[in-house]
Amino acid sequence: MTIAQPSLELLGQSLPIGESGVRATAQADIRFPFDGSIIGKAPVGDAASASLAMAEAAAVLPAMAAAGTGKRRALLMDIQDKLSARSEEFARLLVLETGKPILDCAVEMARTLTTWTAAAEEVSRTTGETVPLDLQPLGEGMLGYYTRRPAGVVVGIAGFNYPVLLATHKIAPALAAGCPIVIKPSPDTPLATLLLVELIRDVLAAHDLPRAAVQMVNGGVDVGEALVGDSRAAVVSFTGSAAVGHQIARAAAPRKTVLELGSNTGLIVDNDADVDAAVDAVIRGGFYANGQACISVQRVVLLTGIAEEFTNKLASRIPEVVVGDPRNPATRVAPVINSASAVRITSWVAEALTQGAWIVATNSPVDGVSDDSGTDSESLIYPTVLANVPHSSPLWCQEIFGPVVALETVDSMEAAIELVNDSRYGLQASVFTRSLKSAFAAINGLDVGGVVVNEIPGFRSDIMPYGGVKDSGVGREGPRWAIEEFTTTRMAMIRPA
Asked: Residues of CATH 3.40.605.10 domain(s) within the chain?
């Protein structure tokens, strides 16, 4: 089967709703964050478009629920194959749309392909089990078992920073579970998701399954509210900010929500740690994706014995973080998604400085030194490390979502764990140590969804259960766990005649 590559211009004219698509109510310019140039036009829908998509999804639910295990597995593997053949094309589009360095976009596509493969493998593992009904007298002589059934229509809402990967972590498990899904991408980054959805819809048709099993509605708050509030939605899966996640949870109730929200991720460096490795972790883990990752390093908590050495070594390495054009393979930091984000980040840094923080290191140009980043974008935030940031400052207690790291020093591992836990968030955290005692103290004591030992807190295998606690969300992603979120148990209780 050959899938023709649609042009971005043609894609921008219609929304992938129903079997053949519907004409968009409007179009929006999508700009390259590096220089502000228009890279394409995206179709935009409205609340009526969202309602139509939900009606179409509900109509094809029986067909998707009836698709057998082998058919669903073959579908997912075929999508992976077609996507793999166009991986470089998607990566190039992601650079232009998100402004992330090409290295990060290539990683996003590699992880996306792994996720599709993993979802295909999990289809045959979606099993139930027997239940001993005869434990109680009323069940003597009876047979009991449960199976997992599609929960119904899934609504997936994804963030701007990893649009293809985040959409995949919703679409692939939904199809594996036999659920139709309606995706809403970030209005800042809808093009790669649109291309992904069109590819999937072509593969669905080739497997004699309805195209309406996967639909996309791009738009603003009105679209999101219409999707989340629609009674035909069985599950709402959202990746984004905590504030929006809380609104979605309220609007979706009593239906299930899976919320992957923000964090102000902590990294602890013990007195016996490999300091060079810990410094390298901050260089790698604090600035990837332009710092716009919910598990990128934000708060570094140093034990007193290594604090000076760590700080000096980190400061000496900040100039290595190349700032510039994200299309350049050497670039590690480019402008953030838009000027509003840049203004917020800059204001938080400025506020912390007025409260007594100081800059440990930055590769921002100074007076008399020219800026060779290659852009005059107002959205460029240079990698910055600060110390003595007040714990009440937004830079410490909120999610910065930019290439900014704050350092703090404490006297003990217990104090470090307590400080990292003193947060409304709890997604992932990491500890660098040579001590099993310290490693297990962190694993058992950190109030987060995942603890990483001697690696960046941004480590995420796409097959593992991923999610947070507190304001970092509820539920877990990863194909196996997302399939569980998108299914319900159906109990069978049989008394033989």
From this structure: 8-261+472-494
Cα Rg, the chain, nearest whole Å? 24
Can 309 be counted among the known catalytic residues? no
pTM of the model: 0.95
- The structure tokens 């999937």 sit at 200
Contact 286, 383 (CB under 8 A): yes
Residue range(s) in the chain whose domain bears CATH number 3.40.309.10:
266-461
Do the Cβ atoms of 395 and 423 come closer than 8 Å? no
Q: Specify whether the backbone of 291 is left (phi greater than 0), alpha (psi in -120 to 50) or beta.
A: left
Please pick, among 122, 198, 260, 484, the residue that the annotation labels catalytic.
Answer: 260
Output the six-digit token pair for 17: 């709703």
Give alpha helix (H) positions in 99-148: 102-123
CATH code of 266-461, in short, is 3.40.309.10
At 181, list the tokens: 């899904």
In sequence order, the 6+-apart residues with CB closer than 8 A to the CB of 437 are: none
- C-beta separation of 375 from 335 below 8 A: yes
> SS3 of 321, please?
coil
Among candidate residues 56, 179, 198, 294, the one labeled active-site is 294
Q: Give me the sheet containing 143-150, strands edge to edge.
A: 129-130, 143-150, 487-494
> What pLDDT, on the 0 to 100 scale, is given for residue 10?
58
Query: What tokens appear for 426 in the block?
Result: 């709890």
Distance from C-alpha of 18 to C-alpha of 326, rounded to nearest angstrom: 36
Most distant CA atoms of the chain, gap in Å = 91
Q: How many CB atoms lie within 10 A of CB 280?
A: 15
- Structure confidence at residue 369 (pLDDT): 45
Question: Tens digit of pLDDT for each residue in 351-406?
Answer: 999 999 999 999 988 644 446 677 767 899 999 999 999 999 999 999 999 999 99
Whole-number pLDDT of residue 128:
94
Question: Which residues lie below 8 Å from residue 115, measured CB to CB, with a gap of 6+?
Answer: 165, 168, 169, 172, 462, 479
For 419-455, b where at least 16 C-beta lie within 10 A, e where not — what string?
bbeebebbbbbbbbbeeeebbebbeebbbbbbbbeee
Domain formed by 8-261+472-494, architecture: 3-Layer(aba) Sandwich (3.40)
Cis ω on the peptide bond leading into residue 390 (within 30° of 0)? no
| Residue 397 annotated in active site | no
Residues shown for the chain: 497
